[in-house]
Amino acid sequence: MSEISRRAMILGAAAGVAATVPLPIQGNVAHATASGASLDATRLIDPQLIGPLEAMMELGGELPNADNLSLLRGRAATWEKRLPAPAPQPKQISIPARGGRPAVTAMLIDPAPNQTGKPALLHMHGGGFVLGSAAMNTAVLQECAQSCGCVIVSVNYRLAPETPFPGSLEDNYAALQWLHANAMRLGVDPLRIGVGGESAGGGCAAVLALFARDRAEIPIRFQLLIYPMLDDRTGSTNFSPAHLGRWVWTEEANRFGWTSYLGVPAGSHRVPDRAVPARSDQLADLPPTFIGVGALDLFALEDIEYAKRLVLAGVPCELHVVPRAYHGFDVLAPEAPISSAFRQTWHKALRRALLES
Fold first, then answer.
1. pTM for the whole thing?
2. CA end-to-end span of the chain, whole Å?
3. Rounded to whole angstroms, how far apart are CA atoms 88 and 77?
């Protein structure tokens, strides 16, 4: 394993994105499924993704819960400081917030500061709503900025459970307002702004797109949803086959993340309005969308269903399901061909949406 891969692996484990697997792999064979049937891991997982998963498990990470959240956040912050920042150096910015709320910090990446008319992507990081920061994505976002020729603003939204919904939405919308208002100064075309993120960040992006559509103040050109976390009912009232969510992000972790974010138990009959994209009754008039997810991801079924509903609502949607891939596979194994191909796929979709249309 290269040093780059190892850094990504360790960071993922420290942040709780890649953490203890409930049914550990021993050699090439997983323990019994919930139904009692023996399952060969090599039959399920792409062979190039098994090594990084086993290495991650050896770190003895933990899935986030109420008892270890501070510990996991501390580990993540430590590893983020050790990650190299590729050129050009990202800039830390502070975005004023309204209504007496604290200022929102964000990371700005501009691959061509002297150019004008550039597209922009407002990015939201993953971490199950309870972990993570913009800094954990620096290398991935720099590669995206260079590949797609776009300015990227990655938001450090407030985390749950200390700040439940709508805190993250308030922060992300404040960042969207700032990006739109400062478009000319940044050399950005205000009509070519997209939103996106991975995992919980993808869920935040979907919430933001719905909110921006309803407010009708700022046009969003595109939403890029990378294995997005869209439905609090997954793992609480809706259950998946044992091989979905078996690795990296489990139903238990999902319940904790959503409960922390919502302020009520995941899967409750009533949840805060606009908090859960999958519960939205109206998906029409959303921006064109890309959804990418691994076929073994806990979010696979909810992401496929959301894509289906977008299509039925008349929203242009590209769905990419990666065979034999678990949650966050491209983070754990960034140099694997399957991960490289996945990044190229969503880079192409982003360029097409922001540059060619």
1. 0.87
2. 39
3. 22
In a domain, 303, yes or no: yes
Amino acid making up residue 104? V
> What does the DSSP assignment read for 150-213?
-EEEEEEPPPTTTS-TTHHHHHHHHHHHHHHHTHHHHTEEEEEEEEEEETHHHHHHHHHHHHHH
Inside any domain, residue 272: yes
Question: What's the CA dihedral at 110, 353, 299, 278 to 10 degrees?
Answer: 110
Instruction: Please write down the HEC assignment for all residues of 108-140.
Output: EECCCCCCCCEEEEEEECCCCCCCCCHHHHHHH
The residue written with tokens 């039959």 in the block is 43
> pLDDT tens for residues 153-198?
999 999 999 999 999 999 999 999 999 999 999 999 999 999 999 9
- Any idea what the CATH number is for the domain that residue 257 is in? 3.40.50.1820
CA distance 104 to 93: 8
